[in-house]
Amino acid sequence: MSPRFLPVSKMIDKKNIEKLLEQILAEKEVFPVLVKISQGNKISVFLDGVDGVKIEDCAFVSRQIENSLDRDKEDFELEVSSYGVGNKLLLPVQYKINIGRIAKSMLADGKTYKGKIIEADEERFTLETEKKGKKKSEKTKELITLTYDECRETKVIVSFN
């Protein structure tokens, strides 16, 4: 892929970086989860992928961005990394990737649910939760379907079993 320079106006702009990432990652197994531009033109790109993110993926994206922006016109600092386990899920595809894992969702009203993600689409996801029965050892399963809009955050609970 040959470098493409963005229009001179303002290269270090979140929308420009997101468009650039679309082109760079069009045929890759990783995708951008979050792009941040901070003071001093510090560009932070966080990637995720169906099979995780390898160092090679980060290096590739970093090189492509470096080759596509002109430091002589607008200087910048660049950081490309994996979004990381334990951060809140931001995109529907992240819920799909994590089907089968335990997650904790906090709703906008503060109510929380913990359960296994068993289904996810573009608008909602379903958790299989356990409720305590009448006896201490008795547990029943309950399916809770939530829309992404009603959740303040959902995080996968990291398990080392």
Question: What's the count of strands?
Answer: 8
Shape: elongated
Helicity level: 10-25%
The CATH class name of the largest domain reads Alpha Beta
Name the strands of the widest sheet in spatial order.
7-6-5-4-8
Q: What is the terminal-to-terminal distance?
A: 42 Å
CATH superfamily of the largest domain: K homology (KH) domain
The largest sheet, given as strand count, sense and whether it forms a barrel, is: 5 strands, antiparallel
Query: Which class do the helix and strand fractions yield?
Result: alpha+beta
Q: Explain this structure to me?
A:
The chain is built from three helices and eight strands, in the order H-E-E-H-E-H-E-E-E-E-E. With 161 residues, the protein is α+β, with helices and mostly antiparallel strands. The chain has two domains: 69 residues, GMP Synthetase, Chain A, domain 3; 65 residues, SH3 type barrels. A hairpin with a 6-residue loop joins strand 6 and strand 7. The mean pLDDT is 91.
Describe this protein with a few key phrases.
SH3 type barrels, 8 strands, 2 domains, alpha+beta, 3 helices, elongated, 3-stranded mixed beta sheet, single chain, 161 residues
Topology, element by element:
Blueprint (H helix, E strand, L loop, with lengths): L13 H11 L5 E9 L3 E8 L5 H14 L8 E6 L9 H6 L4 E6 L4 E9 L3 E9 L6 E9 L3 E6 L5
Parallel strand pairs: 2-3
Antiparallel strand pairs: 1-2, 4-5, 4-8, 5-6, 6-7
How would you summarize what this structure contains?
The protein is an alpha+beta fold and 161 residues long. The protein folds into two domains: 14-82, GMP Synthetase, Chain A, domain 3; 92-156, Roll (SH3 type barrels). It has three helices and eight strands.
